[in-house]
Design a protein that fits this description.
The complex is a heterodimer.
Chain A (H helix, E strand, L loop, with lengths): L1 H19 L16 E8 L14 H10 L4 E3 L5 E3 L2 E6 L5 E6 L13 H12 L14 E8 L2 E6 L6 H4 L7 H4 L19 E7 L3 E6 L10 E8 L3 H9 L5 E4 L1 H7 L3 H6 E7 L2 E7 L9 H10 L2 H7 L5 E3 L22 H10 L3 E2 L5 E3 L2 E2 L1 E7 L3 H16 L3 E7 L1 H9 L6 E7 L7 H4 L17 H11 L4 H18 L2 E14 L31
Parallel strand pairs in A: 1-10, 18-19, 18-20
Antiparallel strand pairs in A: 2-3, 4-5, 5-7, 6-7, 8-9, 9-10, 11-21, 12-21, 13-20, 13-21, 14-21, 15-16, 16-17
Chain B lengths: L1 H14 L6 H4 L7 H11 L5 H12 L15 H36 L4 H15 L2 H15 L18 H39 L2 H8 L4 H13 L1 H13 L5 H6 L5 H10 L3 H29 L1 H5 L1
Helix pairs in contact in B: 1-14, 5-6, 5-8, 5-14, 6-8, 7-8, 8-10, 8-11, 9-10, 11-14, 13-14
Chain lengths: 538, 310
Amino acid sequence: MTVKYFISITILLFFCFSCAKYKDPHFYDEKGTPAYGDTIITASIGEPSNLIPILATDSPSHEIASFIYNGLVKYDKNLRIVGSLAKSWKISNDNLTITFYLRKDVKWHDGVPFTAHDVLFTYRLITDPKTPTAYAGDFLLVKEAKVLDNHTFRVTYAKPFAPGLISWSTAILPRHLLEGKDITSTPLARKPIGTGPYKFYEWIPGERIVLIANREYFEGRPYINRYIMRVIPDSATMFLELKRYGIDMMGLTPLQAVRQTDYPAFRREFNKFRYLSFGYVYLGYNLKHPFFKDKRVRQAISYGINKKEIIDGILLSQGVEAVGPYKPDMWAYNGNVKKYPYDRQKAKTLLFEAGFKMGQDNILYKGGSPFEFTILVNQGNDVRIKCAELIQKRLSEIGIKVKIRVIEWASFINEFIDKRNFEAVILGWSIPNDPDIFDIWHSSKQGKKELNFISFENKEVDELLVKARHTLDIEERKRYYFRVQEILAEEQPYTFLFVPYANVAIHRRFKGIEPAPAGIMYDFIKWYVPEKQMRYIQ
Amino acid sequence: MLFGITIISFVVIHLTPGEPGVIETEMNPKVTKEVRERIRAYYGLDKPLHIQYYIWLKRIVKLDFGISFASDRRPVIEKIKERIPVTVSINLISMLFIFIIGIPIGIYCAKHSDTTMDKALTAFVFAGYAAPTFWLALLLMMFFGVYLEWLPISGLKSFNFNEMSFFEKIMDVAGHLILPVCISAFGGLAGISRYMKSSLLEVLRQEYIITAYAKGLPEDVVLKKHALRNALLPVITIIGLSVPGLIGGSVIFESIFSIPGMGQLFYMSVMARDYPTIMGILVIGAFLTLLGNLLSDILYAVADPRIRIG
């Protein structure tokens, strides 16, 4: 009897709820007009650690900080440098001095006016040996920094330094709150005060951070009134929260983007945006290895790897083939370099030229030793592990035996990369907005813990990188980097594999979002929700 | 005892490859070698290990847990303090559930040993023990959260919690707690009910139980007055052992429900090689283990007069 009751009530309830779930599929179609209000909820796997950006190395911290602070300059949607706290700037004829003319209408969130003294203070703080920051590198090259008047700031470099200008996109910190205090223990790390479009409201540890629109923001009041970042450490849970409308915005994996979000209810509620992410994945060779010393061998392997198959099969087509260390929509990108389409015959010819002979067991031999090497991959990165498997299969077809070893990240770096104890690795680099790649490719950067761990040495590349670094003229720099890419494509110290797409799902009530080379967040303050479609009161 | 535990833990965590702060910046072309050396010196990692331990020990005897290496640079004790209440209350609630449901199941199974119902209950509790938490959690979240839209999926409170009335607040927290508590209790039923059953069966075979039946006492009284008290001893051991467990949350479980508890804190500090936090949690854990053992010894004496005298 009771069981029957229970079942019928459950069914009844179920019907009620499924009725309530019905929604008009075109409700969010209307563009409407920009209006102030509503809340956007995003989620992060990790919790931000420190909201003073120069002290933080994790991306959630920088994400929150990017709403709270400004730099003197910033990138626009096409990755060109434009002013932010600086209205304009002048570079001297000898390319050594940059003079910034600062905006006069900027106030800190606590109402104190922003001046050039804040900039000088920030510079001194970053270069202070007592400040535990990872970002001092660019600023240590400054010879002199000076406040000319309250709204003019001048820096002088010892040598012309191309990434110099954009290094001033670093967050400027409030002098009046930090001067004379210990930066590592300031309350501002958890209750920041900046100049940016959003003000800090609250931080509930382990749960969420809430920001509120800065009505007096100098580029105009943001339309969306609140920004909430929830901490959801499990990606599967985060995805369920998205489906349940518990969050409004989330980056999707290829599988989620292509397969798991392709149903009517999701399309009704979410838009998906796609842009090239700032990073590439590569197969790097240890150039000290006797086989990999020979350029022809590296080229042969590049011919032997089917990049298209990797992108289609593993990334579900959510990526493009990489030919060099930049992504195709950057100004420094040179698409006109030697390419390595999948070609087994060419690969074999090159290997025979390099002195390899096919053995009885269908494995190539040179001087009695078989062509056999191990690819190291870091644990937890499924995409890279699968890449290694596809590469293993393709290379076995041309007579190269590949083993795969998966290693936990910290020992991967310390025991294998740092000690140069590897034959080949699959790794990724993030692509900085400024094309300076000196630290990765210059031959002087081979020391312990330095980034040229594959031991790449090329005189011409060395020269070009140094020249490009000390040139401020974009066209000239472009020429240098174009040539660097030609050499890298010819030499194949890495086999550049792919640049993945970033896929982001955003609730459809948010309008005014345009993907560009810079991603989608560059004009967040212009996003809006039409009044009728608003969901949260505030 | 505590001293030994700390020495071993200190050495082991410092022997694992990787260093704090450096780990995340490892593949960033903007972080130069000089910067890295500076950070190492800042954390005092350039000193030999025994000196680092000595410095740590000197602080810990004054109950100073130090400052976290994570880039938030907060005192370790503060980080632990803000997370302990959540973990302890969830663990207490689910332990309560485990005892309230598990002990009766054990008693029932002992009383009706080898019946179909006994077998069914056994299968049920073992299913709970065997089912992977994350799998079960995700399935239930999908069903009750996404499909039926009855329960919230994760977290402890809705984000508009502060704007709610008192009654709504209670409902909100209860709603958020249903899934996590049920799932963690489900997993713990097997242990307690099995212990209860086997020790009760053992006791029921004793001669004084036959005597009790023989003098005509009703079954209820025999069970409650004569059998249960003796059968409780192993259960007390479990209570003692679960005291340190109160502060240790499960990483997987907390991650899935995004509950900001101790498990996550510990996991993250290990991944970030945040030595002071790791050591802080280990010291508290070791202390509670010793305390739990003491507690169960005392409870033995309460339950069993023979121990008190002997």
